Amino acid sequence: MRLLVPAETRAGENRVAVVPSTVAKFTQLGLDVVVQSGAGSKAYATDAQYQAAGALVVPSSGLDDALAAADVVATVRPLDYPTASRLRPGMVAMSFLQPATDLDTIRGLQAAGATGLSFDLVPRISRAQSMDALTSQALVAGYRAAVVAADRLPKFFPLFMTAAGTIQPAKVLVLGAGVAGLQAIATAKRLGAKVSAYDVRAASADEVRSMGATFVHLELDTVEGAGGYAREMTEDRAARQRDLLAPYIADADVLITTAAIPGRQAPLLVTREMVEQMRPGSVVVDLASETGGNVEGSVAGSEIAFGEVLVWGAQDVASQMPIHAS
Fold first, then answer.
1. What does pTM read for this prediction?
2. What pLDDT is stored for residue 261 in this prediction?
């Protein structure tokens, strides 16, 4: 079996689907691994490292021939329609394919008679943990969210006690206590902030406390779906939740939102008016900006001022740390 690892073509994507250490494992299993020259360069994986691990490195001019000879194609982002439609019948394309939104890729695979495997759809069960790439990317995003917030906040995160007086720690509120949210909590705690968090799932309270944060209790029913994700809520409940969250958000120096519903638009948790009630200089990090946003008006890949509050819209967050995200 021949596995092809082409270079990513989407602007801003720095990850690579297969790193040299994984190539070595594949070759031991008898796979022939072919890597496009420069595929790992943005993740600081060199052609020489791939060759040392047992891969055949081909120049970009030879990519079409390599694609024609491959049995499996592994990418981070889904193949575009022209590439997907050129695959041979029976070939397999592996990527973070979102079947609900990446319709052009699906149509291309269908036209070619090829199979698409999506890292997004690996079930969150114990037996599949070693294949759960989506969770690993969420961990990177949660870490990055806390670091970005600390960088943008014009005040200290930790408590300082000096001869001149005491500086209180920054207050960080995290909405959503999944993998990204828990990592944001852990990172903010390591940086010395006072952290609280909220999630619609009842089971998340103990997880939040185990990270050393305070769980925010709201007088609302829990909303839990399959696989540890939240399920979609009614608009009446969402509005009531926003009303109850408003005073906690107004009291925070940093707000990090991480709520997601698989295959759907991100739920709107925070209105612009709620953001504008925060203290001047506060920072909001919306990790869900690419899927509609948890924060009204946030824009993926942009920093926007809502009054005197900075709103950072996430885009390709895991790709900003390609060495560990690949």
1. 0.89
2. 83
